[in-house]
Inverse folding.
């Protein structure tokens, strides 16, 4: 600990002392304080010194108050400090009240801060690239195909690099699963393959080593991400320059990226894919087919231009290509700024959740204001005395506000702890697939937010009760009893409670819609069966399987082995499992088909399977036959199409036996399957064409095993079967298919959980607040109950009165809330699935629920009213 | 506050902190930090700066202690102020010591402490 720090602390603490004392002893005190603290390295000694210093400041001030002559006018700071002392003393004298307020506020502030951190990490924080406002992902627009966007074709990358003037640079990317050996067990990693200029486009340098250069295309180099470096290479800096084996080929490690570096390649239709390492691909982009859209493209606009201008240029060039190549059907490119692309989809949900948390905070504040009104009501005598002694209204209000701010700041500190816990809970579950979720943390910005929130909350909850309590009729308070002063308080509190109930209604109704939507989502039929299926990624390394024959042998044998396992009913493999890897897109022309708008082909998803896949995945084969191992490259090229393509391509005919041309290959249609939702569970996508894996082989596939037993129990036997054939073959990502479905819905679940939690808090807090108000009102009307009872009212009638009052109050709040929920319905509509944003069922349940809560909250006070002894009540003043 | 005709007995009983400080200064003039160290070592419980200087403030005001400026440098921060007992301060310290002695005497009479001689 540095002496300078001690000195600064001492200086701060000295501010608590009267200025005269400071003048006389300040220097010496500071010096000796520092010297004393530096005597030992124990922090407790320094803490003891600080405590002693602060404690003595109180005593010194008390002493000063006793002997000081009024001639010395205290300065602003003196007043503030005195107020703070007084405020703290008052709070300590009323521990129960203080603790309750701090506790409630801490929860409210903590929850809001946690949600803010979530929103901040995902939406607000700037991305760690150079000039990120000029970075965008570029997608291909295919207006005549029913998809929002598609990947970019190879030749278009150099085309645009040459022709678009506002384009500074463009990088093409793909990701692939590959195997990393050396330094431990074989590990499947996600490899980003890119043109050499990726890091130039991003404007980022590796933390160790060097970025890619053009010459790296011919070599085998790789740059590791920080996460992989730490987990696999134990953060050893000497890894740079070493050789590792990736995909059974030697690669030189030339760099390691910084821990803050985050870049995800976006799959064309939604989920970002995290990359573990980057390498340079030696693609010859110019000679590739411009019909095969296979790359994600990252572009940077020139410094003297911007993305809008670039988009305009792309539109012009796109029109030309459209005319030349696509017969004006609507080909083009569109840019999405990097941030919007990554997180845009999550924005509405996060903002909604933030709204929920803010509502809870408002309710918390309303409750605390209510408590404050009651509390300052009880202190009216004390305040009246102060006013009589000459304190102006502003000083009294100021004093009360200082108290509430002190409470709020304390609550803010505790709230940070609450926020930390909440954040851990929210982000800890690895099933939450929010983009940038790993950037969410309780950092300086969150602390700043919490402090500002505490300050505002403190002012808010202090001002209203303080203004009420310090009204000029204080002087009369010294004469009259305490009665009559809380009645208006009850009205104000009643308004607050009505507001709370309204907010609670809106939150609860929105949660209801979300719950029903999620239920509907889980119920839909995506045309594949997730239950009882296990998936696993198997990527054969080229080095051991240089010929396709070897790969076929492996998989055919593997399929036989697995099929023979007890409990297994089907097994197959595919290149694009549902909710997994993206498929490649291609152009397909059904035989004898005429596009309605003069199009030449239909954009389809191209997927390769082994025999048995459809059965394993639960995709119904409607007509025709499945693939067989005899559909080899020497046999006739065949394809199985889905029902959408069947409907589109051969509307009134039987597609079986007809020819489908896909990217210049003629395939014979041998079967029709249902259209499976492979990208999003709630939407249909492009038509699908399946070809036999043996006729279009790739080394990386996803195995699917269906069994009559729990899929988790098949994991071990699956691995054994693979290793029986090849000891060194890693099997990655072994997980039940249902887990993928859960992950696809995880963002929705997160929204639902958070919003429901907010709603429950809101209901609980409103109920407690209502109880408080009714309780006070009943207590304050004790005489009235006594009179009524004496005049013949039965306990039941008295109870009924109270309950009616409570219901009336609740009804106002619920009514306002209902109107609010209906108005909010439009916003909630965006998140709804299968139900309306103004779902009547949710609204009904909400209203009924809150009425019930109101009755429960009012029950105990109602009983108290009915039990009033008239004699006691009438004697009471 | 009237300084003349002040009897030392008016200040009794002293708080233990004040007495320890007077004891420390009775050995000779010292500056604040030295008093802190000396008292802390002698009694085993630390005397902290806040407590020390507040007590000194009272002692100075009451006239039991006076301040000497020992300027070893022109810099305000370098200057260490030494403190020493005034005649009143010595008298008060002596009075308190006598009071404590009397109390010890009473404790011996009631056999809480072994009295006289060399016994423990």
């Amino acid at each position: 600990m540095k002496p300078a720090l001690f000195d600064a602390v001492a200086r701060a603490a000295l501010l608590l002392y009267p200025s005269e004392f400071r003048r006389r002893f300040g220097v010496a005190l500071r010096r000796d304080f520092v010297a004393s603290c530096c005597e030992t390295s124990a922090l407790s000694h320094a803490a003891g010194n600080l405590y002693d210093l602060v404690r003595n400041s109180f005593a010194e001030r008390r002493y000063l108050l006793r002997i000081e002559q009024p001639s010395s006018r205290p300065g602003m700071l003196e007043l503030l400090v005195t107020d703070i002392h007084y405020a703290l003393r008052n709070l300590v004298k009323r521990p129960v009240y203080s603790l309750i307020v701090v506790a409630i506020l801490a929860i409210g502030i903590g929850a809001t801060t946690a949600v803010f951190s979530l929103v901040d990490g995902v939406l607000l924080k700037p991305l760690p690239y150079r000039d990120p406002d000029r970075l965008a992902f570029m997608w291909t627009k295919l207006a005549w195909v029913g998809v929002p966007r598609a990947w970019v074709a190879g030749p278009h990358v150099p085309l645009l690099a040459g022709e678009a003037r506002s384009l500074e640079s463009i990088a093409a990317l793909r990701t692939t699963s590959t195997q990393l050996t050396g330094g431990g067990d074989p590990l499947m990693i996600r490899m980003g393959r890119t043109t050499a200029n990726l890091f130039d486009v991003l404007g980022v340098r590796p933390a160790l080593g060097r970025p890619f250069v053009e010459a790296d295309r011919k070599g085998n180099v790789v740059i590791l991400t920080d996460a992989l470096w730490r987990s696999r290479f134990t953060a050893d800096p000497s890894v740079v320059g070493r050789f590792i084996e990736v995909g059974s080929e030697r690669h030189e490690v030339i760099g390691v990226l910084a821990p803050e570096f985050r870049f995800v390649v976006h799959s064309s239709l939604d989920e970002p894919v995290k990359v573990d390492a980057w390498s340079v691909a030696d693609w010859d982009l110019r000679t590739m087919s411009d019909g095969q859209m296979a790359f994600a493209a990252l572009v940077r606009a020139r410094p003297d231009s911007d993305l809008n201008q670039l988009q305009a240029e792309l539109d012009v060039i796109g029109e030309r290509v459209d005319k030349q190549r696509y017969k004006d059907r609507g080909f083009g490119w569109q840019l999405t700024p990097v941030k919007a692309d990554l997180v845009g989809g999550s924005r509405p949900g996060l903002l909604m959740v933030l709204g929920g948390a803010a509502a809870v905070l408002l309710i918390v504040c309303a409750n605390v204001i209510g408590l404050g009104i009651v509390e300052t009501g009880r202190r009216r005598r004390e305040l009246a005395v102060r006013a009589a002694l000459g304190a102006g209204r502003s000083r009294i209000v100021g004093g009360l506000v200082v108290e509430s701010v002190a409470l709020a700041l304390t609550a803010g500190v505790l709230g940070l702890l609450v926020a930390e816990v909440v954040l851990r809970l929210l982000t800890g579950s690895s099933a939450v697939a929010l983009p940038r979720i790993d950037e969410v943390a309780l950092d300086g910005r969150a602390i700043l937010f919490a402090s500002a929130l505490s300050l505002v909350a403190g002012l808010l909850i202090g001002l209203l009760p303080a203004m009420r309590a310090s009204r000029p009729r204080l002087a009369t308070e010294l004469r009259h009893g305490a009665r009559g002063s809380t009645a208006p308080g009850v009205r104000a509190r009643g308004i607050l409670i009505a507001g709370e109930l309204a907010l609670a209604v809106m939150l609860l109704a929105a949660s209801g819609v979300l719950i029903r939507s999620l239920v509907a989502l889980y119920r839909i039929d995506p045309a594949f069966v997730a239950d009882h299926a296990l998936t696993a990624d198997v990527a054969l390394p080229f080095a051991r399987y240089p010929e396709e024959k070897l790969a076929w042998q492996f998989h055919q044998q593997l399929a036989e082995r697995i099929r023979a396992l007890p409990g297994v009913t089907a097994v197959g493999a595919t290149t694009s499992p549902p909710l997994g890897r993206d498929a490649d897109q291609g152009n397909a022309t059904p035989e004898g088909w005429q596009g309605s708008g003069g199009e030449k082909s239909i954009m389809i998803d191209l997927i390769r399977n082994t025999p048995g896949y459809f059965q394993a995945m639960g995709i119904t084969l409607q007509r025709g036959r499945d693939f067989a191992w005899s559909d080899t490259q020497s046999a006739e090229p065949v394809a199985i199409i889905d029902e959408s393509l069947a409907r589109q391509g051969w509307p009134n005919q039987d597609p079986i036996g007809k020819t489908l041309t896909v990217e210049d290959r003629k395939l014979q249609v041998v079967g029709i399957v249902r259209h499976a939702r492979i990208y999003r569970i709630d939407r249909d996508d492009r038509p699908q064409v399946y070809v036999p894996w043996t006729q279009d082989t790739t080394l990386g596939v996803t195995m699917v095993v269906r069994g009559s037993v729990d899929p988790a129990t098949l994991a071990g036997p699956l691995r054994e079967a693979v290793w029986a054939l090849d000891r060194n073959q890693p099997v990655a990502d072994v997980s039940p298919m249902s887990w993928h479905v859960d992950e696809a819905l995880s963002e929705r679940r997160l929204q639902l959980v958070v919003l429901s939690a907010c709603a429950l808090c809101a209901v609980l807090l409103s109920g407690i607040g209502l109880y408080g108000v009714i309780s006070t009102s009943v207590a304050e009307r004790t005489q009235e109950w006594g009179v009524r009872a004496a005049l013949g009212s039965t306990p039941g009638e008295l109870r009924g009165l109270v309950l009616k009052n409570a219901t009336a109050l609740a009804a106002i709040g619920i009514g306002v809330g209902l109107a609010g929920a209906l108005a909010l319905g439009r916003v909630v509509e965006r998140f709804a699935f299968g139900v309306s944003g103004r779902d009547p069922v949710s609204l009904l349940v909400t209203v009924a629920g809150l009425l019930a809560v109101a009755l429960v909250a009012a029950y105990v006070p109602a009983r108290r009213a009915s039990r009033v002894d008239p004699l006691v009540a009438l004697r009471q003043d | 506050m009237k300084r003349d005709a002040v009897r030392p007995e008016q200040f009794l009983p002293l708080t233990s902190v004040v007495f320890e400080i007077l004891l420390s200064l009775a050995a000779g003039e010292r500056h604040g930090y030295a008093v802190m160290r000396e008292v802390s070592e002698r009694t085993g419980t630390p005397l902290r700066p806040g407590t020390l200087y507040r007590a000194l403030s009272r002692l100075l005001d009451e006239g039991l202690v006076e301040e000497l400026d020992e300027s070893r440098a022109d810099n305000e921060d370098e200057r260490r102020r030494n403190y020493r007992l005034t005649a009143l301060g010595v008298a008060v310290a002596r009075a308190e010591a006598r009071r404590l002695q009397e109390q010890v005497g009473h404790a011996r009479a009631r056999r809480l402490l072994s009295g006289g001689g060399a016994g423990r």
